[in-house]
Design the sequence.
């Protein structure tokens, strides 16, 4: 059973601070890792993906991957109230399996 | 690009009735995925297609659920007969093999009473 674990939160962060979201996964064969943002009542939208160990930066967002520890994180710098949403971690296994396995998400609240 | 298009946006039906959800993937995307989202279980993969062929349907909960993709631009997810526990938001997503990103549709909120 492939599992992706996230702290459900809510995680409350002051505006302008760094928000740190974490995710662990069970399948060592996993190859690609995704962060989606989902506003209430809306569909998930892709923020970033990462497939190599280390950091990947895109604007205010940085994804970090540590395959040895089976750990993925997302940092949001200069947090804005508009960043308040549920953040979903998703993992794609190798071996030709194309579907993503999602965590249940972390609810992030940015306090003005 | 119109994105992934799902219909209907909302569906309320009585237990025992047949429900059909529809999805049009992004043109050129050759992989299509059906997901179900509930508060208790989160987002669950039901089935996915590559080049219109079902590849993995291990997530389909019961024989009451079936999915088809008759051509590259259309897919359906059918529940017959529907039950109250099928109430959820059903998302369709598509992906281009040359791109890591999966794009989701707006979803269909299904309520079975």
Sequence:
């Amino acid at each position: 059973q492939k599992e992706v674990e996230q702290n459900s939160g809510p995680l409350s962060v002051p505006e302008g601070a760094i928000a740190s979201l974490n995710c662990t996964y069970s399948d060592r064969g996993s190859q690609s890792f995704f962060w989606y943002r989902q506003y209430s009542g809306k569909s998930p939208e892709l923020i970033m993906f990462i497939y190599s160990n280390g950091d990947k930066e895109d604007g205010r967002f940085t994804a970090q991957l540590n395959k040895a520890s089976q750990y993925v994180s997302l940092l949001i710098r200069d947090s804005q109230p508009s960043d308040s949403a549920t953040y979903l971690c998703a993992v794609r296994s190798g071996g030709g399996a194309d579907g993503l396995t999602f965590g249940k998400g972390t609810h992030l609240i940015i306090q003005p | 690009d119109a994105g992934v298009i799902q219909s209907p946006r909302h569906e309320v039906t009585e237990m025992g009735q047949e429900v059909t959800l529809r999805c049009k993937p992004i043109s050129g995307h050759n992989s299509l995925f059906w997901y179900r989202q509930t508060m208790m279980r989160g987002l669950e993969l039901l089935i996915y297609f590559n080049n219109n062929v079902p590849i993995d349907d291990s997530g389909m909960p019961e024989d009451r659920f079936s999915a088809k993709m008759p051509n590259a631009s259309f897919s359906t997810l059918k529940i017959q007969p529907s039950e109250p526990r099928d109430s959820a938001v059903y998302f369709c997503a598509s992906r281009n093999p040359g791109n890591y990103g999966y794009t989701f549709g707006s979803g269909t909120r299904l309520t079975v009473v």
